[in-house]
TrEMBL record:
The chain crosses the membrane at residues 24-52, 64-81, 93-112, 118-139, 151-169, 181-200, 260-283, 298-315, 327-344, 356-380, 400-419, 425-443. InterPro entries: MFS_dom (IPR020846), MFS_sugar_transport-like (IPR005828), MFS_trans_sf (IPR036259), Myo-inositol_Transporter (IPR050814), Sugar/inositol_transpt (IPR003663), Sugar_transporter_CS (IPR005829). This is Sugar porter family MFS transporter. Pfam families: Sugar_tr (PF00083). One of its GO terms (cellular component) is plasma membrane. It comes from Bailinhaonella thermotolerans. Residues 27-447 form the Major facilitator superfamily (MFS) profile domain. Keywords: Membrane, Transmembrane, Transmembrane helix, Transport. Its main location: membrane.
Amino acid sequence: MAQAFSGRPVTHHEDEERPHRRKVYFWAAVGALGGFLFGYDTGVVSGALLFIKHDFHLGAFEQGLVVSILLLTAMAGALIAGRTADRVGRRPLLIGVAVVFTLGLLAASLAPNYVTLLVARAVLGLGVGGASAIVPVYLSEIAPARIRGALVSANQLLITIGIVVSYVVDLVFAGTENWRAMFAVGIVVSALMLIGLFFVPETPVWLQRNGREDQARRVLCEVVPADRVDGVLRSYRTSGDQGGGKVSWRRLLRSSARPALVIGLALAAFQQFAGINTIIYYAPTIMEDTGLNASNSIVYSVIIGSINVVMTLVAMPLTDKAGRRRLLIISLTGMTISLIPLGLTFTKLHGSGASTIALVCILVYIASFAIGLGPVFWLLNSEIYPPSVRGEAASLATMVNWLSNFIVGQAFLPVAAAIGQGPTFWIFAVIALLALLFVIKFVPETKGRSFEEIDRALQRRL
């Protein structure tokens, strides 16, 4: 990567950069709408399903499929997106994602029957998977190094905001049982994203790597002081393998990208197997099991989602100040510690005291996740790979993340029924501890570093 663009720390004054950064902020805001739609489309179904099941007379299996089919097609969307983005560019792929979101939401809001709704959810899964793989890459490749962490973390912030907004929309339309309107609201954002993408450029990294140096120079001239453009382009030429072409996953694992890919795949799995979506999906049920009244599940979801948003906001500037590695260590420590007493509330503790402890533990767990493992995984997954395989590698790690999400979601209730919820949360605690040890041993700091510096640090550790 480069000075001023995802590379070495800049040395000129902040007032020189500020006018150029305004355009970067606009481009990032448009791209990050994909993160909002990711969050909205995964969250909106929780409230909509309360009424869909009556309108379409759905059984338990059919309801579960409405939710899980998005996770399954998101895996496919992530894999398709990475290879496509490396071949045709980040911007065309994002335009395709916005179109997919729009069509999926329109089909869901107009679905005349269960099968059509299922197809619509499958289409939305492709959009969610594509956005989760490519939005962070796009943000990383347009971002100056000094604010790269904050801009890429904006994707995670918009995901959490999208989830909370979906819950609020569910709450607004719950009184009229209008689940179609719940889906239709998302079309407004997907249309804004689609329109906005016609006013943003391709990333200069992709343009330069694909022989379009004049176009890359024009993009850089809009956001970098003129006397720095040549230096940025020179750094792109030395930032890893510039070769194009199709890269198989087996070859990817055998290439110089292997250390980065090991970290990306491991963090992708750890993020889900540490139990985050289990806590989010089943928080009302968890609280009810400890004796606390959880009759209004949507309200509980809004509260927990709001904590997620607030702590993600806290994390955004810290990624470029405290650093990625330090935030991961703090995050995983807090998650591990909070899961241990949470398990105790189901085994040793009872009554109102247990409910209070469980609520505190859940909030500490969510806050710990949101300040580190939540945003930092997506940030690292967008900046540690060689530019020539970045889309492909990021999409592979994203697919592993979605697969892990699906496995944990399907396994939680059966495992909890077999061994109890307390021991199940202790399993999550052990996984979080293993993730902490992995980060301490293998994950280097990437704050303000060029790709060459990141790669040297990776090669030393793995």
